Amino acid sequence: MPVKALSLLLCMLLLVPLSSCGTTSGHDVPRPSPDAAEVPSAPEPSPSPTPSPEPTPEPTPTPEPAEPYEFGTPLEEGESVEDDAFFDTAAYLGDSRTEGLQLFSGLKHGDFYWARGMTVFKADSEDYRVFEVDGQKYSLLEVLALKQYGSVYIMLGINELGFPAESYEQGLGEVLDKVIQLQPDAVVYLQVMPPVNDALCRANKLADYINNEKLGQFNDAIVRLAAEKKVVLLNTAEAYTGEDGQLPAELAADGCHFAYNAYRRWADYLRTHVMDRERYFANREAFIR
After folding, report:
1. Bridge-partner residues for 93, per DSSP?
2. Whole-prediction pTM
3. Residues 244, 211, 160, 95: is their CA dihedral positive or negative?
4. Is the pLDDT of residue 49 over 80?
5. 249-254: Cβ within 8 A, 24+ apart
6. What is the pLDDT of residue 62?
7. pLDDT category, 136, cuts 50, 70, 90?
8. Which residue, 141, 130, 160, 157, is CA-closest to 91?
9. What CATH number is given for 86-288 in this structure?
10. pLDDT at residue 6 tops 70
């Protein structure tokens, strides 16, 4: 080959760069240096929240125990109820004296179930259904079962004075058992009978057995039953008893019944002698256990 041609070939080779491996391009692809590669750093852990301290629970207040009540002792006097609507859920069971309570006392709230001549022996008798509701006849205890009451007031005994006191006590006990069964949520009040005026009873030719000696025996039975059956004892008699133990003549009509204006004493007594429901049922439960 001539020298001139060889020199020209060498010059051409020096001007063409060497190709890189693994590429299909005629251009050189720069490869990053390992030292230059960015290595991702591990994320810094987020700080855990500091837990709030648990609040100290407030102690559950211990309920105040109900005030004790000794069944068989007269309920103490308290503040008078402010509104007679308190008696809207009351039922009054009795005889002609309870009739006077409804007609002349000024107490117009509640249901009055009375009958002249009513006795503990007639209270649940099929032969003495004298209370009519919606055309149906009921006995005293049957009519009491028609609705639920908040309180039940019982005064029975004046018409039973001709019977032995033992018979009366048994009969009244059976009435109380049935009332408690029929009215489990009611406060039951058993009332001591006010005295009669012996002289006026004789003057008006009432039966000889209507006298304070016999009535006292029946009242003793009432006290015993109030203790035994765990019901409230109301000493209603103290609103009508004179210093001599008699019903004062000015408060008496025929010697047995009260004068019209005297029935207000009975209503006033009920207003100031009210048993707290919680106290009643707590003491019943304590005694029954």
Report:
1. 113, 154
2. 0.79
3. negative
4. no
5. 249/197, 249/199, 249/200, 252/196, 252/197, 252/200, 254/200, 254/201, 254/204, 254/206
6. 64
7. very high
8. 141
9. 3.40.50.1110
10. no
DSSP for 123-180, written as a single string? TT-TT---EEETTEEE-HHHHHTTS--SEEEEE--GGGTTS-HHHHHHHHHHHHHHHH
* Cα separation, 151 vs 53, whole angstroms: 52
What single-letter amino acid sits at 66?
A
Domain ranges within the chain, ordered by starting residue: 86-288
> pLDDT tens digits for 235-252?
999 999 999 999 999 999
Return the number of other C-beta atoms located less than 10 Å from residue 11's C-beta: 9
Q: What pLDDT does residue 208 have? A: 97
Q: How far apart are CA 186 and CA 139, in angstroms?
A: 20
User: CB under 8 Å to 96, separation ≥6 — which residues?
Assistant: 114, 116, 117, 257
Mean pLDDT over all residues of the chain?
87
